[in-house]
Amino acid sequence: MPYTFISSLIFSFLLSVPLLALDVPPLSGRIVDLAHLLPSDVAASLSSELEEHERKTGNQVVVLTLPSLEGESLEEYSHRVATTWKLGQKGTDNGVLLLIVPGERRVRIEAGYGLEGVLTDARSAQIIRHEIVPRFRAGDFAGGVTAGAKAIMGTIEGSYVAPQAQPRRAPSNGAVESLFIAILIGAFVGGALMGGRLKALGGIVSGVLSFLIALPTGLVMAVIAAVLGILGALVMTLLSSGVRSGRGRTGWDGGWGGGFGGGGGISSSDTFSGGGGDFGGGGASGRW
User: Fold this and answer.
1) How far is the C-alpha of 288 from the C-alpha of 105, rounded, in Å?
2) DSSP characters for 242-256?
3) Are 64 and 287 in contact (CB under 8 A)?
4) 60 contacts 87 by C-beta, under 8 angstroms
5) pLDDT number for residue 195
6) C-alpha separations of 60 from 34, 158, 214, 277 in Å
7) Where are the domains of the chain?
8) Could you give the 3-state DSSP secondary structure of residue 286?
9) How confident is the model at residue 15 (pLDDT cuts 50, 70, 90)?
10) Reading across the β-sheet that carries 95-101, which strands appear in turn?
11) CA–CA distance, 46 with 77 (Å, rounded to integer)
12) Are 189 and 226 in contact (CB under 8 A)?
């Protein structure tokens, strides 16, 4: 009986312990490139910039690339690495981890407690979306890692400005007015003609009138006006015949893909280590 009880306790304990947890690699430098994404010259140059940033601001920004998470959660593993390495200074908690996992096409920025007010979740997401992911999709991993790290440092220093989305150009007033007039004339003239026996001629006349009226606004607007004029005439005909018609809406969806290539290795420094900083889970994640 005692033997059975002890065996049950041991079994329950083993079930509660993650036996296959992914190890946290040693903090060998400001860039730990286990996925071999960075050529040696790029890694050396970026490591120097990270070192200079730390010298000026006291903040520790570290890059880790990993081939795969081996089934672990990106957020949980990123937090475990950052807290194990203790990036940033004790009391100020000003450390940042940029984690890239090409095997799962995942990326995360993990910000320490002391930087969450500057390197906010929203700003971290912007950096991932605008600086890192587009380059990764194009296969430029070295460029994406470098741009992301520089944007993180620039955000902390107050020099980084996220690119703004380009607003869509609205058509000129003249183009809008011409298009509106073309649609009206196409619909009413075509509809009137189609009300009689010259239905085919009505459609043709409607399209020609729409095209001639809209022509000064450009070829594209003219073609649109002509098509809409013919459609307007067709609708008028259907309505006059007592036939009900409906219209639907179509949409589009997109995707992306890509791979990853080899490069340098692990950037190391005999004297580099974390300073005792702590993390609370702030940051953002993305995929490409």
Assistant:
1) 6
2) T--------------
3) no
4) yes
5) 52
6) 19, 16, 61, 9
7) 22-164+265-287, 173-240
8) strand
9) very low
10) 31-33, 60-65, 95-101, 106-112, 279-287
11) 24
12) no
Residue 278 has pLDDT above 60, yes or no: yes
Q: Which of 8-22, 140-154, 157-171 has the highest mean pLDDT?
A: 140-154
**Is 22-164+265-287 a CATH 3.30.70.1070 domain?**
no
Q: Is 239 helix (H, G, I), strand (E, B) or coil?
A: helix
Phi, psi angle pair for 77, to nearest 5°: -70, -40
Across the range 246-264, mean pLDDT stands at 34
User: 170 to each of 166, 167, 173, 174, 251, how far by Cα in Å?
Assistant: 12, 9, 9, 11, 21
Q: What is the CA radius of gyration of the chain?
A: 31
Specify the amino acid at residue 150. K
**DSSP one-letter code for 275:** B
C-alpha–C-alpha distance, residues 75 and 139, integer Å: 24
Helix (H) / strand (E) containing 60? strand 60-65
pLDDT of res. 13: 47
Interatomic CA distance for residues 71 and 22, integer angstroms: 9
Q: Look up residue 73 and give its amino acid.
A: S
Pairing verdict, β 95-101 and 60-65: parallel
Rounded Cα distance between 152 and 154, Å, is 5
Beta strands in 89-155 (DSSP E): 95-101, 106-112
Global confidence as pTM: 0.61
Rounded distance between C-alpha atoms, residue 29 and residue 109, angstroms: 18
Kindly list the distances between the CA atom of residue 193 and the CA atoms of 24, 157, 181, 224, in Å, as whole numbers in the listed order: 78, 70, 18, 21
141 with 131: CB under 8 angstroms? no
285, two tokens? 């994640």
Phi first, then psi: give them for residue 222, nearest 5 degrees. Answer: -65, -45
